[in-house]
Amino acid sequence: MTPATIATRYIDTLAEVLRHAAVTGRDEVRLSLDAGIDWMRHAATKTHAGGNKIMFIGNGGSAAIASHMANDFSKNGGLRATAFNDSSALTCLGNDFGYEHVFAKQIELHHREGDLLIAISSSGRSRNILNAVDAAVSGGCRVATLSGFAADNPLRRMGDINFYLESGAYGFVEIGHLALCHAVLDIHMGWTGAA
To answer: What is the per-residue pLDDT for 1?
Structure first.
């Protein structure tokens, strides 16, 4: 296989992973990708209009996506958003409560009923992400999840809306999660299908 062929296959595979994103509600009923993106877009708009905020969380590459999206939702989309991955907060709370609680404690400290949590985890199994979702639900927040890897990952069933990408490759899952979040924001900003 030539390098050009491999690159084309990579992009084609990424497109297929995104096209086949599984979207479910809390009741695990399958929804279309359009319905899932629409739910998230309306939830983000409603959250902001109600004086609330959108909270992004993730580990590693997903933390980078969380920061990127919090900045873009705020700056470009005019929607109140933040990411809970400040290094001082993570090390303080990790030291005092254990790393599995670094996001849950921040949600407990900073959430308001009606906030929206967007929880991003490639594996859907990170204990600190699962605990954060529990804290958000207990606090009256709406939750959107983005996960990948194994179809039975627990995060996939915890949100009001859940996006699952069927791939075991980090690159496809992470790029896919970023693309889904950008789709929500771009459509919110008026994208209608033009390049």
So the answer is: 67
